[in-house]
Each structure stands twice: as structure tokens, then as C-alpha cells.
Amino acid sequence: MPVADRTTFRTCPLCEATCGLEITVVDQRVTRIRGDRDDVFSHGFICPKGSTLRQLHDDPDRLRRPLVRRDGELEEASWEEAFAEVERLLLPVLAEHGRDAVASYVGNPNAHNLSGLLYVKPLLKALGSRNVFSASTVDQRPKELANAWLFGGGLTMAVPDLDRTDYLLVLGANPYASNGSLATAPDWPGRIEAIRARGGRLVVIDPRRSRTAEEADWHLAIRPGTDAFLLAAVVTTLAESGRIDPGPTGEWVRGLDEVVAALAPFTAEAVSETVGISAADIRRLADELVDAPTAAVYGRIGTTTAEFGTLASWLVDVVNVCTGNLDRPGGAMFPRAAAGSPNTRGAPRTGRALRTGRHHSRVRGLGETLGELPVSCLAEEIDTPGEGQVRALVTLAGNPVLSTPNSARLDAALATLDCYVAVDIYLNETTRHAHVVLPPPSALQKDHYDLAFNQLAIRNVANWSPAVLPLDDGQPEEWEVLCRLALIAQGLGTDADPSLVDDLIVDTLVAGAVADEHGPVHRRDPAEILDALAPRKGPARLVDLLLRTGPYGDGFGSRTDPVAPGVPPLSVDVLLDNPHGVDLGPLAPRLPEVLRTPSGMVELDAEPILADLGRLTAALDRAAPEAVLVGRRDLRSNNSWMHNVEVLVKGRPRCTLHVNPTDADRWGLVDGDLATVTGRVGSLEAPVELTDSVRSGVVSLPHGWGHDLPGARLDVAGRHAGVNSNLVTDELVLDELSGNAVLNGIPVVVTPAAVPAGSEVPVSSATA
Ligand SMILES: Nc1nc2c(c(=O)[nH]1)N[C@H]1C(S)=C(S)[C@@H](COP(=O)(O)OP(=O)(O)OC[C@H]3O[C@@H](n4cnc5c(=O)[nH]c(N)nc54)[C@H](O)[C@@H]3O)O[C@H]1N2
Ligand SMILES: Nc1nc2c(c(=O)[nH]1)N[C@H]1C(S)=C(S)[C@@H](COP(=O)(O)OP(=O)(O)OC[C@H]3O[C@@H](n4cnc5c(=O)[nH]c(N)nc54)[C@H](O)[C@@H]3O)O[C@H]1N2
Ligand code: SF4
Ligand SMILES: [Mo]
């Protein structure tokens, strides 16, 4: 019997913008997805990816049943068989080689997924290995460390107050393509246009004239990898003319004078050649920033996946402090998330100092940060024999064969593992090496709440999205899969009930909540709280707890004042009654209560950061390579995993090498022909697209492509394969302070390819 049409609303989980979607379902099939005009944050905005949740769900290549390797081939198996195989392969590795022999890699979609956000940590704990890796060390780790040292929390982030600022300085980000990152806002383009419409100014620092740079009032084409020099020179320029003034925020800032003194050698003149921007332009930039009524400096991928990533990330906020823009409307402000934020729990202005390097990687001795090792050393931990060698791997929503540096080496290493378990929706370039693949339900089959991105949002909102479609027959939830893996890793067998882990997690969180003397349920009876959460289980129960004990929560009856007009204090039930979300208002100043540093101050002078300035000084007069490679993103792409959606990949190929015409003349390259790009670790071949949008001496290739490896099951992506840019990025070049990979500014040599245009170039021909 056909079920009547229904319309449901949910937040898009694909990128950080958190747009509201309106979804029409007929007979348990999604027939239409469009922007939810009534969403309190996105007001109907949607990008071309948002509506493809339907195609992703319906994709015949999306795995619905587990795969188990038998006689070398991956075959469909029952869930029981798959978990039995995990146990059969994993336990001997643990028994014979110890816990550190099992590595894990946690990919980007975990941040967009409640199961990932709430159940991965317990699984990692159950595995008990120090070899934990994630996409964070090819991404934002430098910013997290800067935040942790400055403010006392990795996600205690000062985000640009887009809707009120008069001046936005963007470094190394292209929100017209990415829709913004580490600053959550649906419709960045619209918000940028609004800045200009109200007489404000957009300035973009990028070696490419990106879509965002095209919209800018001023674009400065910086030399890749040099943002830290530029920002240091902005501070020094302001200091020279006595214009550093943190305003009222100064009361909560420690070490400003010391920092200004330490940056003094980086004058506009001293850095000009290194950054490729005239001293006059650097001075003008400093003038504009300090003269604007309000201004916000914002940096992203181009500043974090760089040699001085932590310094650049820290300097973004040093400039925000120096210009009086930290924590004021129109400047860079701290969100107050409704659920799950460490900076709304416990005692304000107390915390422990961040320590890094508490343990080190076996082969290269790289230091741990925030409990993880740099993913740049994953391959060597697998392929270097000796005591402590990694023999088993668990990947959770990750595709490191396309997303991490020198990926050919990792690709080869994965083929040698004794046990590789992947939790993933696709058989792709990485998971094709697995012994067991465990596919979770599609995004439309899951409840959703943005526990992570609401902590970075430019407006405080809360939005609960119930699952749109039911689970397939016999299919476990993703959190149940993760819990069952945890139980197997703890030797409790394949039959143990995943609720055991779920109950343990909720018990721990409730115990923490009743112990928090600053929280709303201090000293309440845990049993009473657990009763009030029943009968929910899984992520819904945990989010309900986090919301109700959060800053806008009902405190399980202890608070009753409305949090927005007509909206009672928050719980999952209240959010269910508000399907377009609840608007909790614009950001409000939060200093000093947001701080969790040992001194209770913004610790501008954190010792590890100041120590790293020596590295910056040493690089000041280094000669620039003839050519460097940078990345870029495309609106129709999402890292490596949405190229199997036909509507997103059709049309002109997007994986092209952007080359400036003057460079092409020098290097003998022709538009449309293949070029060979060679770096220290290998080479690749990509079609040349001539464009003056890249600075001379810079070539650009997007990441996340290279879908022609045998054994993957990606029919559409295989026909639009592109080439993997990480075949030439170098696993030995890091931002030393954070261990983050350098993925921009890779020295390369570009030559015409020996192979004539049009003939197929297998990626596997790349030399490693
Ligand atoms: N459509 C789409 N959206 C996405 C993603 C996607 O793959 N596709 N990925 C998501 C993820 S995981 C992330 S982390 C975000 C990233 O979000 P963004 O950082 O906005 O992403 P990019 O478009 O890569 O922008 C980086 C820009 O930095 C420039 N750049 C390169 N090197 C340098 C440098 O040394 N200095 C400066 N100043 N600029 C430099 C590049 O030319 C590029 O324009 O996007 C998210 N959103
Ligand atoms: N050269 C270069 N390399 C880069 C970057 C760059 O700018 N340049 N950017 C880096 C950045 S910012 C990032 S974040 C990383 C991303 O690196 P990764 O996280 O390794 O890669 P993704 O492409 O996001 O792959 C996500 C995987 O999750 C799976 N997946 C999707 N949804 C789900 C789900 O709901 N559950 C499960 N279990 N699996 C799911 C997909 O099938 C895919 O295998 O790439 C990095 N690599
Ligand atoms: S911008 Fe991001 S959140 Fe919004 S519809 Fe597109 S992919 Fe989804
Ligand atoms: Mo990312």
C-alpha cells in the first residue's frame, strides 16, 4: 500500500555549512530535496550537493551488506559472519603483537555524523592503541593547537562575525567553493555579498584568484606557505606606528607586549619578497584592518596545511587581538553551542595546559597531539619492520589513500596488513584493501545533530534531524557497529550486546554532569536523570542529555525560562517540535568565561608557539622553488567521496592542473595536453588548464581524485577518475609544531608529459 507523501526537514550533513533541507518522501522513497526556506539559519539556501543525499542513498554502489575477503576476493556476507571474521583476524594480532599493533584512521565524515562524534572515542579506547591517526592532521590540527594554547580548548574558536563585520580578511579559504570551514554558516556567499552591500570590504589572500577572490574588493596573490610572515608583518606594522589596541579584551589577554616584541623582526620590508607582496600593500592592509570600524581575520586550509600552520593560525588571532576585534560584535567571536561544548562545562577560567608529544611514533619519533599521531607517518608504521610494527588497521569513514601525503606508499602498505577492518559506505581506493567492510546506513537513515559544527557557528542555533528513511532489514545502526567492534576488541565476543557500551557511555556522561558544580544537575541522582532520558538510546539519548545539561537546556526541570520566543529550554523533544531549528541569537561576547586556560587568560604568549618563531625566522630569506603545487576545492566535490554521483561529475572535467600561461610558455605546456608533475616522492600526469587565475610559479590541482585503482566499486567515479594529487605531496614535510601535513606549496617540476594527450594514463604508473 503506498504511504502518503510526507515532508520532513533535516540538516544537510555533507559539509560544515549545516543547511536545512526540505525532503519529500513518497512510499519510503525520497522524491525531492530542496532548501528549507523556514530553516532558522539557512533560510532556503542549498548548494548542488545538498539535494544529492537522495542519489547517495540510491547509489547501487553504496554498500548495503558487509564484505568479507575470501580467497583474496571481497564477497558479501551476513553481519554475523562479518563480525566473526573481524574477531578471527583481530584477536591474534592483539595477542601476539600487542595493542599498538592495531592502528586506526578516523576520517572527515565522522565530524558530520553522531555515531562518529559519540562512539568513535569509546571504540578507540577499547582498541587501546597509541597508533591513532585521523584526517585532522591533514587539515585543521594547527588551528586546534593554537586554540588550545590561546583559549584552552581545541574547538574554542573565534569565528568571524560575518553578519555584522565591516571588514573580512580571508586567508587561504575559498568559501564560494567550500561553503566555509571552521566557521559554520549556511550561504557564505550571500553573507559575503551582504558585507559588501552594507558598505563593508572583503580582502582575500590567496595565490589563486579563487571564486571568493573574484568577489573581493582586494585580492593579494601571496606566495604559498608564507601567510605567517604576512600576518607577523601586519602586527609589526601596527606596532611601529603605535596602533596596537586590544580594547576591552586586553584585560583578558596575557603576553601581548612580549609577542609584539618577538614579532618585531618581521617588518613589511623584511617579509615582502618572501610573501611576494609589496611592503606598501602590507602596510595598507594593516591600515585598513585597524581603521575599519570592525574587522575579522579568518584563515583556513591554505593557512593550516602549511609549513608554519600553527603560527599562522595563532597569528590570525594575534591580529584580531591587536586590532581590538577579538570577542566583539563584528570581529572574531566565540560561539556558545547548545550541546557538547567543553567551554560551556566545568569551571570558567580554569584548565590544564595543553601538552603535546606525550608519546612518539615508533619510526620517525613524531610527537602526539591531542591523542593522535600525524597521519603522515601511518605508512611507515606499517611498512617498516621491527618491534611495534602496525599489523592491523581500522578505518572509520576515511579514504587516506586519496587524502594523505605520499599516498602511493600508503596504498602499497595497506596491501600487506594482517587485518584491516573498514567501516564505510563504499568500496573505494582505501577500503578495497580491507579484509572486512562494515557498511553503516546512509545519511538519510540516521538521526542528525551538529554537535561539532554548532561549536563553530557564526550564530547560535540548534536543530535535531530525525532519520528520514527506515533502516534496511537486519541492518545495524552505525553506532551499533562501532560498539560491537569495541566489544570484540575487548575480548567480549561477537554476541555481546552493543547496548552495554551505549549504557556505559551514558552512565559516564551522567556521572560527569551531576559532578559539575557549575552545571544545572549538580548533585542530582544519576538514576533520576537516566529515567528521564528513557526510553531513548543511542545517539538520541546522548544528545538529549547534552542538550538538557547544556547552556540552553531544561536542566531536567531546573530551568523553565524560554530560550527563544515561544521556545522552552532545550531537549530533543523541544527540537522535534521545532523542525526548522531554534535560533538562539547572534554571538555575544564570552570573555573571560569561555576560557579554560591555566591562567584564566588568553595566553597569547604560549611557550611552544613563541619557540616556533625561530623556525619562521630561519626561513625568512629562503629561496623560492621554481614551481609549487597548491590544492583547490570545487563546489561539486566533497573531498574524495562524492564523485560517484553522476550529476556532480558530469560536464567538463574538474581535475585539471591550473597553470599560468607565462609558466606554460617557459615549461612548454599546452592547454589540454597532459603535464607531468614531479615532486620528491613521485609524479603524476594531469591535463593542463591554462589560466591567469594562478600566480606565476604556482600550479593547482584539486585533491580527492584518482578513482581508477583496481578493486574499487565506484562505477561513475571510475569513469571520471582524475588523478590523485597526493601522489606528489610529501609525507616528510610537516608543520613541525603540530605534525600536520603540508599539502600546499609543494616544490614540483612541471614538464610536458611524454604520453600524447587523450591516451589513458593509469595512475598506477606514477612512480613512488
Ligand atoms: N565543495 C566542497 N566543499 C568542501 C570540501 C570539498 O572538498 N568540496 N571539503 C570540506 C573540508 S574537509 C574542508 S577542510 C573545507 C576547506 O575549506 P577551504 O579552506 O575554504 O577550502 P579550499 O577551497 O581548499 O580553499 C583553500 C584556498 O587556499 C588557497 N591556498 C593554497 N595555498 C595557500 C597559501 O599558502 N596561502 C594562502 N593564503 N592561500 C593558499 C587555495 O588556492 C584555495 O583557494 O572545505 C569543506 N567544504
Ligand atoms: N592534497 C590535499 N589533500 C587533502 C586536502 C587538501 O586540501 N589537499 N584536504 C584534507 C582535508 S581538509 C580532509 S578533511 C581530508 C579528508 O580525508 P578523509 O576523511 O580520509 O577522506 P574523505 O574523502 O572525506 O573520505 C570519507 C570516507 O568516508 C566514507 N563515508 C561517507 N559517509 C560516511 C558515513 O556516514 N559513515 C561511514 N562510516 N563512512 C562514510 C566515504 O565513503 C569515504 O570513504 O583530506 C585531506 N587531504
Ligand atoms: S552547502 Fe554544505 S550543508 Fe549546505 S547543502 Fe551544500 S553540502 Fe549541504
Ligand atoms: Mo577538511
Number of discrete helical segments: 25
Question: Approximately how much helix is present in the residues?
Answer: 25-40%
CATH structural fold name of the largest domain: Rossmann fold
Estimate the strand proportion. 5-15%
Mean pLDDT: 97
What is the number of strand segments?
Answer: 29
Cα(first) to Cα(last) distance is: 57 Å
Q: Over all CA atoms, what is the radius of gyration?
A: 25 Å
Strand order of the largest sheet: 5-4-17-16-15-6-7
Low-confidence stretches: 759-768
The distinct ligands, each listed once, are: ligand MGD, iron/sulfur cluster, molybdenum atom
How does this model look, in words?
The chain has 768 residues and is α/β, with parallel strands linked by helices. The protein has 4 domains: 1-58, 2-Layer Sandwich (Phosphorylase Kinase, domain 1), CATH 3.30.200.210; 60-129 and 374-448 and 459-586, Rossmann fold (3-Layer(aba) Sandwich); 141-339 and 598-618, Dimethylsulfoxide Reductase, domain 2, CATH 3.40.228.10; 634-767, Barwin-like endoglucanases. Helices cover 30% and strands 15% of the residues. The chain is built from 25 helices and 29 strands. The chain has a 7-stranded mixed β-sheet with strand order 5-4-17-16-15-6-7, covered by helices on one side. A 4-stranded parallel β-sheet has the order 11-10-9-13. The chain has a 4-stranded mixed β-sheet with strand order 22-24-23-29. Helix 4 (141-151) crosses helix 13. The longest helix is centred in the first third of the chain and has 19 residues, at 79-97. The protein starts with 5 loop residues before the first strand and ends in a 16-residue tail after the last strand. It binds ligand MGD (2 copies), iron/sulfur cluster and molybdenum atom (MO).
